[in-house]
Amino acid sequence: MNREPEVLVIGAGVIGVAAAHALAERGRRVSVIDTGEVGRGGSYGNAGLTVPSHAVPLANPGALRNGLKWLLDPESPFYVRPRFDPALWSWLWRFRAASNEPQVARGLPVLRDLLLAGRELFDTLTALPEMQCGYAQDGTLWVYRTRAGLAEAEEEAELLEEAGLRVERLDEAGVRTMAESVRPGVAGGIWFSQDGHMDPFLFVERLRERAESLGVEFAEKTGCLGFDVAGGRIGRVLTTKGDFDPQMVVLAAGSWSPSVARELGLRLPVQPGKGYSLTFARPASCPPLPVVCGEARVVATPLGGHLRLAGTLEMVGMDESINRQRVGAIHRAANRYLAGLEDMELVETWRGLRPCTPDGLPLLGRSAKWENLIVATGHAMLGLSLAPVTGEIVARLADDEETGFDLAGLRPERFG
Ligand SMILES: Cc1cc2nc3c(=O)[nH]c(=O)nc-3n(C[C@H](O)[C@H](O)[C@H](O)COP(=O)(O)OP(=O)(O)OC[C@H]3O[C@@H](n4cnc5c(N)ncnc54)[C@H](O)[C@@H]3O)c2cc1C
User: Fold this and answer.
1) What is the CA(37)–ligand 1 centre distance, in A?
2) I want to staple 12 with a disulfide (CB 3.0 to 4.6 A). Which of 34, 89, 270, 384 is the partner?
3) C-alpha 388 to ligand 1 mean position (Å)
4) What is the rounded average pLDDT for all residues in the chain?
């Protein structure tokens, strides 16, 4: 293990691996450390979507409206556990403050540009023979059972369309032509043809192998404990398996980033947003493309020999337990939209933590406080979608190059 890499990446989720890969492609000597195993954190069992259709920031007026409505429902897609936690309350306060139209108007083009650039990078990467991970560029089909749900979705679709994204509105017949297992009686749907999907863990594995072939070294079960700093720079990184003396550090520890950043005197307002997935053996009725069960915010993604159902956003702190009622609610919700899901063979139940920022935008850029620190976290629902473009941006920042993106709104220390 190289103890004096040019760049040390902290965290081997999809973001850290993508950053290491992009840095190594530019000839950097890179080591990556992770408390656990590569790709086994929040990046392991997610829904596998790449989603330009999610360019509206998570903090938006609709999310605020629905969030308040859902708070009291134990089976709703969103839940906040009431508790004494000043960091959570400050996060919620900032989320409320950011959920307005002017903020959405500022954030949407930034996310759109990143997501579309990410899409191109996925196309290029997954065309490589060694990067096969079930990637398909067939869009996502959003289905709504109620007129009210469809009307709300159309409002958001209009914003996306105005921003230049492709949106195709469908009536019930159109929906069922695309996915015949959608139950009759739905109000309609929207097809976002620029979305794609893949097996997310396979993607991380393939990217890790490719990074290794470019010389990147991965140290698993190696947690960052702290730092030695001097003169505005990080000198030494202290870990559970000895010290590293890198020239530059990339912080990509997902939902754990605030605790690592605290060692550097930085306050990153990232809250873990827990979600679940259920992976089943592929049923005969499996939809041919990902179906988003609109009102329920549950995704059904076909993944080779499997079908994965994913959903829920729980603000419950660093609690990695599995709430069986909510997991059951995901399956029940999918059943209301899609036929043939009743008796599937369950392969895996998973939970993961999404690193969520209060304004719905990642924390991405050079630190203002530490000259040789780059922060790359807070990707919330978009970590897979934004991983390759985040990696590319990190590599350009490390080379002091223009990134080609408007990163002003993503400054890691923007919350003070
Ligand atoms: C149910 C669900 C569905 C989702 N669906 C999608 C989707 O369809 N599309 C999409 O784009 N995104 C999706 N996401 C979001 C996506 O999974 C996350 O945004 C992404 O995984 C975040 O990646 P990350 O690398 O920042 O964090 P992680 O993958 O969590 O990686 C962080 C790593 O840091 C390590 N670490 C922590 N502390 C330390 C330390 N002190 N020292 C060293 N290492 C440390 C952890 O062990 C972990 O491996 C979904 C998430 C969930 C939960």
Assistant:
1) 12
2) 34
3) 14
4) 96
Contacts of 188 (CB under 8 A, 6+ apart): 143, 144, 150, 169, 170, 171, 172, 174, 175
Q: Name the percent of the chain in helix, strand, coil, to the closest 5.
A: 35, 25, 40
Q: How confident is the model at residue 63 (pLDDT cuts 50, 70, 90)?
A: confident
Best mutation site among 40, 43, 241 for ligand 1 pocket (most ligand atoms within 8 Å of CB): 43
pLDDT tens, position by position, 242-296 = 999 999 999 999 999 999 999 999 999 999 999 999 999 999 999 999 999 999 9
> Residue whose CA is closest, atom 44 of ligand 1?
34
Query: Looking at the whole model, is its pTM more than 0.90?
Result: yes
Higher-pLDDT residue of 109 and 1 is: 109
Ligand 1 pocket test, candidate residues 35, 44, 205, 322, most atoms within 8 A of CB:
35
291, containing H or E segment: strand 291-293
Q: Which of 32, 46, 133, 276 to mutate to test the pocket of ligand 1 (most atoms within 8 A of CB)?
A: 46
Which residues have any ligand 1 atom within 6 Å of their CB? 10-16, 33-36, 40-43, 46-49, 51, 223-224, 252-256, 260, 275-277, 310, 352, 354-355, 377, 379-385
DSSP code, position 14: H
> Residue 58 corresponds to which amino acid?
L
Give one DSSP letter per residue of 95-164, joined into a string. Answer: HHHH-SHHHHHHHHHHHHHHHHHHHHHHHHHHTSGGG-S--B---EEEEESSHHHHHHHHHHHHHHHHTT
- Is 211 within 8 Å of 24 (Cβ atoms)? yes
